[in-house]
């Protein structure tokens, strides 16, 4: 990781069969110290398990290390098991979880500190993104967090956190998460022609209620 940062590297990241897998880049992100920001439109438990050991090491290595995650609270976007596990690890107020009620589709993974690194691209933190999908992202390291290539991403992450709300235990209660999914899909439906809503969105909503309970396990 030191070599990457010292060379002010820009690298492509992708699925596990690529030269630099996204999962590997995320693991290296947690190998450094500072504040790590995670913004993932879809964040599954299996995806989390792929990097959990790295997260634990990051939190245990220094009480100054902090994890800030912004997630979509809907049942089809975020597994409640992740929140409960992170809360159980948070003995020294290092973990800060936020919910973004608008449709969250962004993917940004960022660490400040002495070896700041930014990963941005198409991959969510899901096993499917890590192992199956064709994903493309960019990993960029610079010497300081004030570098003009990195500063806009840090400012964007800060603005997103400011516009989000702390994630509470009631937000990851099953029926509440399903309700959030319904609200998201309803808001999307308002932007579509009526015929498209009838043919596409309504069946999706019906299937969603069946699948929502399964999402927390993947």
TrEMBL record:
Top-rank taxon: Archaea
Pfam families from the UniProt entry: PLDc_2
CDD domains membership: PLDc_Bfil_DEXD_like
GO MF assignments: endonuclease activity
Transmembrane segment boundaries: 197-217
Keywords: Endonuclease, Hydrolase, Membrane, Nuclease, Transmembrane, Transmembrane helix
All copies of domain PLD phosphodiesterase, residue ranges: 100-129
UniProt-listed InterPro entries: PLD-like_dom, PLipase_D/transphosphatidylase
Protein name, as recorded: NgoFVII family restriction endonuclease
Organism of origin: Natrarchaeobius chitinivorans
């Amino acid at each position: 990781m030191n070599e990457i940062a010292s060379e002010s590297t820009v690298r492509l990241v992708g699925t596990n069969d690529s030269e630099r897998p996204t999962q590997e880049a995320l693991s290296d992100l947690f190998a450094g110290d500072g504040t790590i920001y995670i913004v993932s439109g879809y964040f599954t438990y299996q995806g989390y398990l792929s990097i959990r050991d790295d997260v634990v090491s990051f939190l245990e290595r220094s009480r100054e290390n902090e994890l800030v995650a912004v997630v979509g609270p809907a049942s089809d976007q975020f597994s409640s098991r992740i929140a409960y596990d992170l809360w159980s690890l948070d003995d020294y107020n290092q973990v800060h979880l936020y919910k973004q009620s608008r449709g969250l589709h962004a993917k940004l993974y960022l660490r400040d500190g002495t070896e700041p690194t930014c990963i941005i691209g198409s991959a969510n933190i899901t096993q499917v993104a890590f192992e199956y999908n064709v994903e493309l992202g960019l990993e960029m390291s610079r010497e300081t967090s004030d570098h003009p290539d990195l500063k806009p991403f840090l400012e964007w992450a800060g603005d997103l956190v400011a516009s989000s709300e702390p994630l509470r235990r009631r937000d990851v209660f099953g029926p509440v998460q399903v309700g959030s999914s319904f609200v998201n899909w309803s808001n999307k439906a308002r932007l579509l022609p009526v015929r498209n809503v009838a043919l596409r969105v309504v069946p999706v909503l019906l299937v969603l209620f069946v699948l929502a309970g399964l999402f927390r396990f993947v």
